[in-house]
Amino acid sequence: MRLKTLVTAFTLFCFTHLFYIPTLYAQDTKASFSITDELRVGVAGNEPFVFAQNSSTKGIALEIWEDLANKKSWDYIYKSYDTVEDALYDLNKGNLDVVVGPISITSQRLEYMNFSQPFYNSSLAIVSRVDDLTLWQRIKPLFSMKLLIAVGIFLIILAIVGTLLWLAERKRSPEQFPSKIADGIGTGMWLAIVTMSTTGYGDKAPITLWGRIIAGSWMIISIIFATSMVAGIASTLTLSSLGSSTFANVEQLSGRKVATISASPSEAFLKEYKAKITGVDNINEAMSKLVNKEVDAVVYDRPQLLYYMKNHKDEELFIAKAEYYKQGYGFAFPVDSKLIYDVNRTLLELAESQEVLNIVHHYLDKDE
């Protein structure tokens, strides 16, 4: 009886611990990590995400981090870096616990570090001047390759009609259609033009049955042809008069002078579309070249461009709705960091309470 009791007790003990231990482990992996030491926070990036140390303004990334750290009651100390790559290098060396700034979350970086969820989704954008079109810019569409091809086809058709009229009329009406080929076809083309334009001078007119059939058929065809051509030219002129010097998509930048930050992803992006790239050191230099008409457009990260435009509303600038190379900005951590769960959860709380959105709106245009 005593042996049976011992076996039953041992079985219950094993059963309880087999289920309790995994459950406890699962809870521990999700539990908040207690921070007792001072966190080493690397700061890198540019405005509006990170401002200089001597500035009274902090920036989007720093404000979000400080709200997050305050909610978790974490102590931390900042260390500033000139570039994001310098900060990430120190992170991998084990000298930092986290890097704060506009850190692009990329598959390549995930091989040797970890990231929080994105606190902002960025992309490349195009900024151009809002200028009135010059006379040449308004009439330039009329000299496009498509229009020249259409005119060439029209002249060929006109020559064919003129030849057919001459062949039909040259024997019965030699006074109107000379026997010489060049003069006869020229007369036939003149008759075709007069017929198409409904000018009707009456100096030339077919008298044979076949001549009249050809002329009648040409009248019907020319009405359709002329109407379509006139409508196309009119719409082109109308769109040109309503247009501006702005660019709506990257395809329009082919062969244009475009400023961007040297060695940035936007530089490689512009090379794909055969833009004439002007490399600069910062956004202010790029925008200065745009305003002074040294370049036709500026391409760079959308939030930085929006921030510049918000602070320079007196400049007539336009930012296209088109977005390219979309990337998320997040905080970077060592691969084995125990901070990520707490950071992600708190970021979600800040997003749900609209605190992240309010910080972004403070620096960028609300419409964006």
Q: Would you give an account of this structure?
A:
It is a multi-pass membrane protein. Keywords: Glycoprotein, Ion channel, Ion transport, Membrane, Receptor, Transmembrane, Transmembrane helix, Transport. InterPro entries: Ionotropic_Glu_rcpt (IPR015683), Iontro_rcpt_C (IPR001320), Solute-binding_3/MltF_N (IPR001638). Its main location: membrane. This protein is of the alpha/beta class and 368 residues long. β6, α8 (265-272) and β7 form a beta-alpha-beta unit. The chain has helices at 2-30, 60-72, 84-92, 135-139, 145-169, 181-197, 209-242, 265-272, 283-291, 302-310, 340-352, 355-363, and strands spanning 39-43, 76-80, 98-104, 114-115, 120-129, 257-261, 276-280, 297-301, 317-319, 324-333. The chain contains 12 helices and 10 strands. Strands 1, 2, 3, 4, 5, 6, 7, 8, 9 and 10 form a 10-stranded mixed sheet that branches.
